[in-house]
Amino acid sequence: MGEKALVRRRKEPKWLQAAKARDGVVEGGDFLSRALSRAGVLPLNEAERAIREGRVSVNGKVATVVVAPLDEGARIEVDGERVDVSPSTRVLAFHKPKGLVVDGRDREGIGTVFERLHQLLPTELKGYGWLAVGRLDRDTTGLLFFTNDERFVAHATDPETKLPKRYVATVSGRISDAKLEKLRTGVELEDFSTLPAKAERRGLHDVALTLTEGKFHQVKRMLGAVGLATLELHREAVGEYVIDVPIDSIRLLTDEEVERLLGYRPRHLG
Ligand code: URA
């Protein structure tokens, strides 16, 4: 492998490498069946069947090779209907229950959010390559987005975007004004100092914490640093979107919601 390729690979974030490995993405362009499935036109196995049955044409010619490389701008028809294989941004809200891990594999065998997602997806959304947007701990419940657009992942997770994430933690320990003030101004953790955050008391045992960053176990560590042990943790909002789906279910956000509530303009991916 050349030096350039090595450099490029090192720059790619881990979540993207994992998603590509999981979805079998071919570097340097899509094949016909994969393009149909990534655009949500047909799930992969159905796309392959449609090609084998001679139901798909590319630039007016019946395609017979499932893995034929696809030129940009090619005109594609399935059963005589023109289809758009440059997918656009899709964002799904998932209300994560406890127990599932946000990872490609679960060594403990309880299950991953990706396995659960594929059980919940309607047929027309099964074809996309879904990426999880950020992470939640196994025992955290609440809002987790999935998307087919890696730029949306970067938008939502980059602290520079300052997209607020609101958590509600049930804690043991007294929630004093002094502790809340420390959480607001920033606390020193072993490896970094946290940015200013919003912190509010919600009754006797609950704290609502709104962060614009998302380091490993950040909420639990911040609360721990001020003497509050987290018993339960729930993410209830990201940006202006407040979770509105029942636990263990999903909802596709509209383009208008993605733009208005999350500050991201959906785009054509191609
Ligand atoms: N902070 C945590 O400590 N855990 C989560 O799951 C999310 C944020």
What does this structure look like?
It is built from 10 helices and 13 strands. The longest helix has 10 residues. Helix 3 crosses helix 4. It is of the alpha+beta class and 270 residues long. The strands form 2 sheets. Strands 5, 6, 7, 8, 9, 10, 11, 12 and 13 form a 9-stranded mixed sheet that branches. The protein has a 4-stranded antiparallel sheet with strand order 2-1-3-4. The two termini are 27 Å apart. Helices cover 30% and strands 23% of the residues. Strand 3 and strand 4 form a beta hairpin. The radius of gyration is 22 Å and the shape is elongated. 32% of the residues are buried. The chain folds into 3 domains: 81 residues, RNA-binding S4 domain (Structural Genomics Hypothetical 15.5 Kd Protein In mrcA-pckA Intergenic Region, Chain A, Roll); 96 residues, Pseudouridine synthase I, catalytic domain, N-terminal subdomain (Alpha-Beta Plaits, 2-Layer Sandwich), CATH 3.30.70.580; 75 residues, Alpha-L RNA-binding motif (Alpha-Beta Plaits). The structure holds uracil. The site of uracil (URA) has 8 residues, from helix 9.
